[in-house]
Amino acid sequence: MSDNPILSWKVAGVALGLLLTLATFLVKPLGVSTQFVVTDAVVAHQVAPQFAENNTYLSKYGEKTDWSVGYGWMLVLGMLVGGGLTAVVFRDRQPEADQGSMPAMWVGQFGASRMKRFGAAFLGGVLLLFGARLAGGCTSGHMISGISQLAVGSFIFGVTTFAVAIATAKLLYRSTQS
Predict the structure, then answer these.
(1) Which of 21, 57, 75, 72 is nearest to 136 (CA)?
(2) In sequence order, what are the residues at sequence separation of 6 or more whose Cβ sits closer than 8 angstroms to the Cβ of residue 106?
(3) What is the longest distance spanned by two Cα atoms in the chain?
(4) What is the mean pLDDT of the chain?
């Protein structure tokens, strides 16, 4: 880890907390996965309003005056742009920078195929989004906003997410040697 205080996880944690407080005060608690449902519902209300109103799930979202469509997509876009900029700016500081940007652990277990890596990342994202909708919120909604508001369901989500992530990593990266 870097000794640079600007890159400290403590500074980042405080900055995230302040940003979350500001976002909650100005707009609403932070969360991303609902945005996809809101967008689907807005489209459904425009294209097939009867279907949208009769659908128990879609009828809760996407009314004609749902202003959160723009706000939510700006958050999604900001995450993509911010993640991309961070990857470019800090490219040389990544542990796998000297290995062609493929983690040695991944290459050792699954090979050096970029398509396999991108496919696994995409599938993981789809599964995460599906699970987030089942749980009524994503990791940012539950683990950042929900836990900061002391929501019991968010604590359960956080513990469950980490437990499943650890079990999955142990399964995927188990040693092939006996």
Answers:
(1) 57
(2) 117
(3) 60
(4) 79
